[in-house]
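ok so for the tutorial part 2 we go from a plain amino acid sequence to predicted structure tokens. step 1 is just haveing the sequence, like this:
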Amino acid sequence: MELRIKGTDTLLNGTKEVIEGVALVQGIEEDGTPIYVGETQVHWNSQRTVLEDGKVIWVTEDGKEIALNPDQIENVPDE
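step 2 — the prediction. this is what the tokens look like for a chain of 79 residues:
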């Protein structure tokens, strides 16, 4: 099943999420800039949905972000 913005053909891929993590470092530059290893330890239990004015931020199939209330979303029937 897919979701779309009610009354449109715009499909929703999912929600915008924030996940905390630790970017591993191997040193520091003279100007204080970290030298990164290229790996981040992700803390999955920190995951949270991003809200704007109390509305969930949804990501459309073409990558656009839009804040929607639940009543603005509908299921796309399976064919």
